[in-house]
Amino acid sequence: MSVKLNDCYLKPFISSSEYEAIAGEIQSALVTTREKSGAGNDFLGWLDLPENFDKKELFDIEEAAKDIRSMCDVLLVIGIGGSYLGARAAVEFVHGPRYNNLKKDTPDIYFVGNDISPSTVSELLSIVEDRQVCLNVISKSGTTTEPAIAFRIFREYMENKYGEEEAAKRIFVTTDRARGKLKELSDAKGYRTFVVPDDIGGRFSVLTPVGLLPIAVSGADVRAMLQGAADARNAFLFEENIEKNDCLKYAAIRNILLRSGKSIEILAGYEPAFAMTCEWWKQLYGESEGKGGNGLYPASVCFTTDLHSLGQFIQDGTALMFETVLDLKTPKAKTVIPYDPANTDGLNYIAGKSMHEVNRVAMQATALAHVDGGVPNLVIELADRSSYSFGYMVYFFELACAVSGYTIGVNPFDQPGVEAYKKNMFALLGKQGSEFDAIRAAIGEKISK
Amino acid sequence: MSVKLNDCYLKPFISSSEYEAIAGEIQSALVTTREKSGAGNDFLGWLDLPENFDKKELFDIEEAAKDIRSMCDVLLVIGIGGSYLGARAAVEFVHGPRYNNLKKDTPDIYFVGNDISPSTVSELLSIVEDRQVCLNVISKSGTTTEPAIAFRIFREYMENKYGEEEAAKRIFVTTDRARGKLKELSDAKGYRTFVVPDDIGGRFSVLTPVGLLPIAVSGADVRAMLQGAADARNAFLFEENIEKNDCLKYAAIRNILLRSGKSIEILAGYEPAFAMTCEWWKQLYGESEGKGGNGLYPASVCFTTDLHSLGQFIQDGTALMFETVLDLKTPKAKTVIPYDPANTDGLNYIAGKSMHEVNRVAMQATALAHVDGGVPNLVIELADRSSYSFGYMVYFFELACAVSGYTIGVNPFDQPGVEAYKKNMFALLGKQGSEFDAIRAAIGEKISK
């Protein structure tokens, strides 16, 4: 088991009768998910993905990753939202947040096309100068504004640098199987393409080619990742007793605390390698549950760093939150605190201990302190930072999210609220179409008031 | 004026009578701050710092920065909380988040000692191998756990690499003026030292030597930064009419929205260069106001990136928040969206526009959409990403924080809640002392239950 829930700090906050009261709802949400009988059931492809993954496609991903590694020093990954966060989370989970600065025999990986900052583009143009480059552009339609702008700029860059023919060998496209502007362009240019499945939404897509191609380029083991997800599926998809299924228990705890008045769930990691996993989790839960005036606001912290910034608020500020703590069991490094005969800093009482041991004591100490401050804490134990554990954790959080979302009473697989700003933006940028004319007129009236 | 508040999106949420009702409180909080007559008034050194900055110390900082630049390829900055966030925020504000990966004639700067991750230390040991290194360790006492561990390890590294004498020339210490273990060690070893002032708390210390030495090493203009703060002081410290003082107005808006039931303030930037400024701001406001069961939970987002993750929740989830948007007027780069005759991505309607222009339209579109979703938005206009504007903004946020905290009714300058986890940690790590014996016993009882 790469993921286990530890509820030892929750006892003062949730009674066994509360678990019993919600168990039926949780169980039925699991059944609804598994039997694909609920809202949004067109988007449940991730559920059986780890079992069904197309062997040919997996082979092609590994081959493309090998080719990319041999061709370039820098891979630029163009994508936003679910076409960005999952891959970056995986690369940093496995290799650490300083991946690009470490000595290694795999390319640097920069993520671009996830904002509209001119500085991002100009900095990356300067970083790739004099280096060998490949692109992986990830977009189902090919027309999402941020990645489309970046792809326009970097495609031009690649064609100027390499010529059209060589550039085509260095551009890898993850897009719709058959339709869309990007698929058409890829076929015309001869880009190698990979498929964004129709039945998996962006935030559930990290274990599809969307995430797996850049992850494979980084040298992480994508087969092990899928195996982890497959094993999590076996562990959590069929067991209906919440006392025997940590995935259901996590969904239950979130709903019990939401109903008891908590507004914010803070995901806390004690390793910088988890920072982007927290960002991925924030999209997964925020976009799945934050609708119809409902949901827990998903926040995150990097401890112990943020104990020296947000620690005061969590301990003693407005009682809004509970914390879900990622507890890494086996660290990647075994740094030991040296002994200093002079002991000027007074640290000799922990000399000889590993930093990991001290880090885990800090975690325990913090949970105890925050619980004393009235903040419920639950712990999610992660075995290690392997590719296998990442895949296992992804499936754990995705399934728990579906179950939790159905329990809240929302469709966990749509995101109707993200269209509002886009429509305004298209209107204000002068895009043609009667829909945008009407919005432009409405905004004009609002602003003139 | 490098910072201006724009309240055009707030009209549906705050009436002029609400401003009038709170104006007296805000005004008196300003007077309390300026006259140093309130709680925590021993920690108001930052108030007049931009005027009083010791010319000799400023000169010494610039000389040390010059020496560091000539001696090394990598500066390791060891510090946590206020001894970390301000400097990193400034470096990224001015140079961007990819500073270490850009071509430049200043050293890479890595921040360490702000967590207890063994991976952070081992990755940095590998990064500095074969490179020339300097250290800047920042700690008032020298005994804070995280930086003390890192300094123990990297001091040993430096002495092994360079020998004790040469290492001493490469280690720069920012600590108490006269007392403390780190000051004693520095005097014994001959390290160059800089002063952490007695009357300025960590989160208000970025414009002291705490922040200014690493900032100067990065090539940012620390004199201009202090001038920006001095000009902000003149603009905001004396004007008592909230309609003429944006700093007071910001404090007023936060308190009005808090009292009307908002729980979360989200600081939103549209440039990745602002991500660490948001982290600095979170410490400033969270630690200053989050006490006694009070305060707005400070969160942050990087747009448009996070419109594709948290956008759904903000638009349509639980109505917890308001947004404060950083609006950059003059970008650092002028990237233009190219024209593509084939127009496969449908972007030709914005071809020829600068990305900055599109980015700012996205900002406006988002504010309009979120306001429609019931989320109050206020805009803080920043002139540019200069050192001067950073200093100006720092003073703006610090003064607004003091005024806002007094208006909430807390002491904005203490942080009693951060001790709880530390005491537990010392107890669990076996530190000697009767205080820790008692805590150990109490924890033992709790756990055995």
Tell me about this structure.
The structure is a homodimer of 449-residue chains. Chain A is an alpha/beta fold. In chain A, 50% of the residues lie in helices and 12% in strands. Chain A has 16 helices and ten strands. The first copy, chain A, has helices spanning 16-34, 45-52, 55-71, 85-95, 118-128, 145-170, 181-189, 209-217, 222-236, 246-259, 275-289, 311-316, 355-372, 387-408, 419-428, 434-448, and strands at residues 3-6, 74-78, 108-112, 133-138, 171-175, 192-195, 264-269, 297-302, 321-328, 377-382. In chain A, strands 1-10-9-7-8 form a five-stranded mixed β-sheet, sandwiched between helices. Chain A is globular and about 60 Å long. The first copy, chain A, starts with a strand and ends with a helix. Chains A and B meet through α5, α6, α7, α11 and β8 of A and α5, α6, α7, α11 and β8 of B.
